[in-house]
Amino acid sequence: MGANSGKAAIFDLDGTLLDSMGVWDQVDIDFLGRRGIEVPDDYMSTVSSMQFRQIAEYTIKRFDLDDTPEDLMNEWTEMATHAYATIVEAKPHALQYLAYLRQSGAKLAVATTLLPSMRVAAMRHTGLDEYFDVVCSVDEVGDTGKEEPDVYLKAAQLLNVEPKNCTVFEDILAGIRSAKSVGMHAWAMHDDSSDLDWQTICDEADGIMFDFSDAPVRL
């Protein structure tokens, strides 16, 4: 029996396992650049909490574009999928930590908001796809975002591990709160995208990491 047998680790992708938050900044720059527009200072912070379609509608209105929301979403998806398939890297020590957890007997899942095309491309490109028993996405739980615990509970159910024996690794405050609300442990990965919430994250998470060399040895 390994140190973590009977336990599960559930990982977010964007900003936790993947050093990928810069992808979306670059998509914004390239997308607006194609139209001869510079990204305004407040644009990225304004859209960061919006859903995909809302961002498309807001962008069309703000820049008086002729495109439909579907046009924008398709263009962004294509640009981001290419980036996830070619330039995104795993966070430092992520692969070693996953290998250690597997060897220790833990079950492993991904719980992500990433669209399937991006998720598959990124996991294949970085080599993360070899390590997981289960990959769960919010599109499998009725598009319920991470402000609700549904995607984490779905991962636990598929792994056949009780919530109290699961540890969630996340970079956003909403995800940490959701995981803890159903009795899971939650470790926070620092990512620049969550700087505004970092103090609260430190107060509420069971542990914090700057890369996976800081990750817990026992779940």
From TrEMBL:
NCBIfam families xrefs: HAD-SF-IA-v3 (TIGR01509)
Chain ranges passing through the membrane: none
Lineage: superkingdom: Bacteria
Entry GO MF terms: phosphatase activity
Pfam family, one: Hydrolase
CDD domains: HAD_BPGM-like (cd07505)
InterPro entries xref list: HAD-like_sf, HAD-SF_hydro_IA, HAD_sf, PGP-like_dom2
Coiled coil: none
Name of this chain's protein: HAD family phosphatase
